[in-house]
Amino acid sequence: MPLDKxxxxxxxxxxxxxxxxxxxxxxxxxxxxxxxxKKGSEVVRNIVKKSLELEIKxxxxxxxxxxxxxxxxxxxxxxxTLLNLYLDSEEERFIQKKIKFSFIGDIEKFxxxxxxxxxxxxxxxxxxxKLNFTLALSYGSRxxxxxxxxxxxxxxxxxxxxDITKHLxxxxxxxxxxxxxxxxxxxxxxxxxxxxxxxxxxFTKTLWPEFTSQKYLLALKNYINRKRRFGGx
Length: 233
Fold this sequence. Notes:
Elements: H1 5-9, E1 14-18, H2 22-28, H3 33-54, E2 58-65, H4 73-96, E3 99-104, H5 112-124, E4 131-139, H6 141-153, H7 161-166, E5 178-181, E6 200-203, H8 213-224
Parallel strand pairs: 1-2, 1-5, 2-4, 3-4, 5-6
C-alpha cells in the first residue's frame, strides 16, 4: 500500500541497526549458525530496498563488533566468507541503485581479499547520493572515541565536542536519528555511543532474520509518533 507524503516527510534521515539474533534464529530452526547469518544478510537487502522507496538517506548496520573476534574460529571464517559473498553479490546492485557504500571499524584483521573488495566498493560508489550505506566491521565505539581524542590532542590542548565529532569514523555522515535493535536486548553494546547521544532508540524482541519490511515500517511509525525535544520542553 502506498504511503502518504506526510509519512515520508517525518521519517528519520539516518537509521542505524544493531542486527542481533542470527545465531538464536538458527538454533531455533535447528540450522547451522552460518544459515542464520545468511538469512540476516537477506534482511539487510530488504531493508535497503524499503529505505530506497521511503527516501531514507542514511543506513548504518552493526555487522561485526570488536568483541566478535572472540567467537569460534569456524564462525569467524564463515562470517568472513559470507561478507565476501555479500560484497560480490551487492556490487552491481549498489551501482545500479546509486548507493554509496562505506564502512567504519578496524578492518586490518580481515582477509586481504575482503579488505580489497571493501575499499574497491567504497571507491567505485563514492560519488553516489541516492542512499548512504555504512557497514560497521570490527567496530567498537569506545576505541573510536579514544582514537578521536588522541588525534585531536596532537593538534591542540583544549578539546571541544566538535573536535571529537570531526575525528570520528562517521565524520562524513550525520548522527543517527533512530537506532533499532532486534532480539530483545536493550542496550547499545558499544555501538555509536557518541553519535547516538540524541537518537531515538527502538527495541524489539523480533530476531534479526525475522525483521521484515513490515516490522521495519512499524518501527518507523513508532519513531514518527515520538516528540523529539533534545533537552527542551
